[in-house]
## 1
Amino acid sequence: MNLMDASVQPLALRLLESVTLSSPALGQLVKSEVPLDRLLVHLQVMNQQLQTKAMALLTALLQGASSTERKHMLDYLWQRNLRQFIYKNIIHSAAPLGDEMAHHLYVLQALMLGLLEPRMRTPLDPYSQEQREQLQALRQAAFDPEGESLGTGLSADRRRSLCAREFRKLGFSVSNPSLAPHPCLNPGLLCSRGLESLLSYLSLFPQNSNPAQDLERVPPGLLALDNMLYFSRHAPSAYSRFVLENSSREDKHECPFARSSIQLTVLLCELLHIGEPCSETAQDFSPMFFSQDQSFHELFCVSIQLLNKTWKEMRATQEDFDKVMQVVREQLARTLALKPSSLELFRTKVNALPYGEVLRLRQTERLHQEGTLAPPILELREKLKPELMGLIRQQRLLRLCEGTLFRKISSRRRQTSCGSAACPLTTRCCSMGTWRRVPAHPPLRAYLSSVRMGQGSGSATCSPQTMSQDHLGPSDQPSLLPAVPVADIKALLTGKDCPHVREKGSGKQNKDLYELAFSVSYDHGEEEAYLNFIAPSKREFHLWTDGLSALLGSPMGSEQTRLDLEQLLTMETKLRLLELENVPIPEQPPPIPPPPTNFNFCYDCSIPEP
C-alpha cells in the first residue's frame, strides 16, 4: 500500500493541478476539497517528486485565487513556517534543485511580491488621517527623536515655516509654483470627507506646498511611504544619520532622502517585475526572499544606504541624480543576478561593488563587445608589445637628451648634492650627455655617454647643444659639474630611498615630495655619490625614471608607461583591424584538416589550364 501511495500521489496531485488551471470553478472545488494543511504535509516529505507536485498544486491554487484570498492563504502558510521549510529543506537541500521546482519557486516568489502591487498602485490620500500621521512620523523620527511636539509655543506662521523646512531637508518637494487649486480642494469632496480634518493638515504647510504631492504618482504610490516608514522604524540610527548627514551638506550636494526613496522603490519594482504577469518558463527566483520576513522592505533598507554611499563616491550634485540612479540600478541588478542566498550576503556583495568597480566592469564589457579581448586580438597585442615598448623607450631617452628644468634643493641642515649655496629660487638644469658623430642611425644608447648637471638662475632647459661651450656666451654659460659616465651609475633610487628626503622628517610638505623625488647613485672614486632630483611634476618624474631605467637595462614600470603602451596598443590594433570591420573574429583558429590518406599525386605545371 505504501509503494502504491508513493507512485499514485504525484499523479493525483498533477491531475488536480491541471483541473485547477483549466477552470476557475473547478479550482474553487479543489481548494475546498484539498485543504492547505494536506499540501503542507506533502511538502514536508523527503520525496522530491512528491514535493514538486505539491508545490505545483499550491502555486496553481494561489494563482487562481483573488488578491484578498491570496494574501490570506500566504499569511496562513507563513504562519505554518512554510517559508522556513522551503529555505532550509528545499533550496538548501542536498539534492540538486530540479527545473520544475525552480519554476514553481519563481512563481511563488512572484505571487509573494505581487501582494505589494495594490500599495504600489494606490496614491497617497491627503484626506486620510493615518497617512498624514505617517508623514509626520517620518519628520519626527529624523528631527524630533524624543517625540517633542512641533514648534511648541511658536506662532502658526513660524510653525508652518519650520515644518516646511524640515520636510525639505527630508527631500520632499514642498514648494509648488503652480497656482492651480489642488484636487483635494474640490468642494464636493470637502463636504463628503470633512473640511475640518483636511484644513488642520494643510495648516502645517505654507500656501501651495504639500509634501504629500510627491507620493501621488503611481507607481510607487504608498509603497514608497511604507518603505520609508519601515526604514525609519527598523533602522532608526541609519535613518537619522542619512537625513542629518545630507541636511548638513550644501544644498547642491545633499542626497534627498524622499526623492531617492521614491525613485529607488520604482527601481526595485522594475528589477523584481512587481505587477507583471508570471512567465510560464522562468526559473530565476532569488533565495534571499525566502530567508526572512519582510524581505522587500529589508532589501530597500540595504539599497537606500547603498544609494547614499554611491552618492558620496561619485561626489554627486542634484544635477547628477539620474546618473547616480543608473549606477545604483547596475549595482543592484548585478548583485541580484548572483542570486545571494541571504540578505546579509546580498549586503556584502553589493557593498563590494563600488562606483569604481562598476566603471571597470563597464569598460571590460565594452571591450568584449568591440572584440578587443578576443583571444586572437590578445595574441596580436602581445606580438605588438615589444615593438611599441621600444618606441616608448626611445621617446624616454630623447626626453633625457632634451633636458628638464629642476628646482634646486635647499635646506638649512644640509647642502645640495652639487654643493651649491644659492638661494631657494635658484634652478638646476639637467640633460643627458654630449653628442658624438656616429654612423647613421645607431642605437640611441650608443651616444648617451654621460649625465651632466648645471647650475644657474635661467629658466631655459639645457639641451645637448646648449651644453656645448661653442654655443654659449660668457654670461649665459651655466657652471657645469663634471660629467657622470653612464657606466658608473649603480642604481636609481625613488621616494623615501633617496638620501635628500630620507632625513627630512615627517612633515606634510616633505611627504608630498616623496612621490617626486629620485636619485642616481654612482661611483665617485672610492666613495658613493648621488645626483638628487625633485621632479617638477608627476609626468616628468615618470619620464626621467623610465629613461634612467632604460639606460640601466631595467624595465620601465611607471604608470605613464602603462598608459602610453595601452594607448599605442589600442591605436595600432584598430588600424590593423580596419579591413575586418563587421567581420566576426572566431575565438579559436580554424582546425587544420587531416592529412590525405596517401601522397600518390602530382601536379604537372606544363599543362595549361582550360
Note: Confidence is low (pLDDT under 50) at residues 176-195, 201-208, 411-449, 455-478.
## 2
Amino acid sequence: MDVTNFSSQPHWRHCYRNICTDNFVERKHSFPSPFTTSFKTHSRTKKITMSSEVVFNLEYLTRLEESARTLESTPQQRSEMMFKAQREVDAYLEQLSLDHPTGWVIPPKETQGQDKLVQPGQYQVQSGPNQVQSGPDRAQSGPDRVQSGPDQVQSGPDQVQSGRGPHETEPLPIQENGVSIDEVLRDFSRIGNEMEREGHPGHMAYVPGNSTAPAAIGDFLAASFNPYSLNVASCRRAVKMQQMIVQWVGRLFGYPSACAGNLTSGGTVATMVAMTTARDHKVPRSKDYSRSVLYLSELTHDGVAKCLSTLGMREAVVRKVPVDDKYRMDVNILRKFIENDVQNNLLPFLVVATTGTTDVGSVDPVPAIRAVATQYNMWLHVDACYGGFFVLCNSAKHLFEGVETADSIAVDPHKGLYAPFGTGLVLVRNGTLLRNSNTRQHGNYMQDQLTNPEDWNPEDLTFEQSAHFRAPRVLLPLQLYGVATFRDALQEKLELAKYLYLRLKGQAHIQVVEPVLSTVLFRIPGVSDNTNRALLREITTDGRFFITTTTVKGVLYLRVIIFCYRTHRQDVDVFINKVKDAVVKMELPEVEFCHAG
C-alpha cells in the first residue's frame, strides 16, 4: 500500500479488517497468523521502503474486548454504585456537624449557660429592612463525644499544624486487577477523617469552600454525559449553559452584553486569563516586560503576583500600595507611585483593586482607582473572588460601585455560590480583547469540523482546551433553589458578622474591627503576639471551631470568617461563649473593653 497516495486507497483500516476476517474464515481459527504488508514512503531526494510483519490473533482480540467491556456498566451496576456512594456521603455529612472542622471530635458537655445567651433585642441586631430579629434565643449544645487524640490537626501557638493521626492510612494502591466497589468506597471515605472539613459550621478560617447536593449531581451529570463543552460544533447546548452563567454574572456587576468570559478552575486562573488580556493589550512587545509595572495593595491576594511568572513577566515591577485606616488601597499613594514610575521611564500597565480582601474583607475604592487607571492608560482588574457574590445582597451593593467600569473581573462561584472547589469565573468588559488573546488555530485533524466565525467558543476565551464541563455544578443549584436562596444565605453571613462584632465589642479585654463583609478581626490589645496566640489556642483547643490569625498593618489579629452556609446563629453563640471563657481563663487584669473600627 502506497501511503503517499493515501487518498486514492480505500480506508486502510477497513481493508485490513476485511483481510483479517477473510483469513479467519479460511484458516478456521488457526492463529496466530502473520500478514505482511509493505508500507512505502517517498521524499524528493530518495525513496524509502519499509517492511513490517504484523501479527494478528483474533482470540487475543476477543479476550481484550471482554475485559474492556467491563468499563461499560449496566443500569443495575450504576444504580448499585450510586446507592453505595450516596450512603458514604450521607454518613460523612451526618458526622460533619459532630466533629471538629479539622478532625477533632467535639468533647463532652459542650453546653451553653442561659446567662451567657444574648437576649432578644439586646444589641438591636437586625436581619433585614423589616428589622426582624436574627435567630433563636437559645444556642444548641454539642454532642457527647470524646477527643480523638493528640495527634489530630490542632491550632498551635504559632500556626496551624497538621499532625498524622493514628487513623491515617495510605490510599488504596493502583493494582493490576480491580477490587469491589465496597472496598473502593470504604477506602475513599477515610478521606473524611483526614481533611479540613470546610463545610463544617465551625470552620471559620481562610475562605472555606462549600458544596451543595445539586452541585454534586451537576458534576455527576457532567462526567456521565461528558460533552466537549468548549466548542459549539461539539455541543452547542453545553456552550450555551456556560455562556448563560457568564452573562448572568456580568449583569450582576453591570457589564454590557459585549462582555465575554469563561468558567475556570479557580480565581488564580481567572486572574491569569484577565492579566494575559491586559498584557496583550497594554504591553504588546515582550521587550517592554521588564519596565512594566503592576500595582497591588498590601492586602491583595498573593495569587495575583504569582500570575506574572506564568505569563512570562517575571521581570515586571510589582508595587505594593499601603492601605488606609479602613484597610483600603490608598489612592493618593498609588498616584504618587505611578507618577514616580512614569518619570523613571517605566510603563504602568495594570492595577488590581479588591472587593473583599482575604485578610479583612475590606473593599478598595474602585471609582477612584478607575480614575487613576484612566488617566495613565492602565488596565483595571477587580479581584472579587471572595466578596464578589455579595453583590446579590441589597445591603452590600454600594460596595461594588465602579466595578462595572473595570476592564476585567475575577470571581469564584466555589465561594459565594457554594460550588465545589475548582470553579472560578473571569469576565472581560470588552469581550473582543479576550478573544484576541486566546483564539485557537485548529490543527489539520479538525479541518472538517463545521465552524461559524460568529460563534464565540469557550476554547477561544481561555488557554484551556480540555476543561471539565463546569457549568452544571453552578447552574443546577441556581435553577433548583433560585437566586433568592443564595442571596438570603449570603445576607445571613453579613448579619452574623455584624452580630459577632457587636457581641465581642462589649466584651472586656477584646478589641474588634468592624466588618465590611463577613470577616471579623479581634485581639487582646496591649499584650504580646504570643498572648493573642494563646487566646487562639484556648478557643480552638477543644476542637469545636477552626480559626487562624492574620497580620494586618503590622498587627496580629485573630481572624474569623463566617462563610459556610451551614453556619448559623447558634454556632456563633457557641463561639462567642468560647471567646469569653478563654479570656476569663487567661486571668487578664481588669480593664475597660475597647474596640476599633
Note: The chain is about 35% helix and 15% strand.
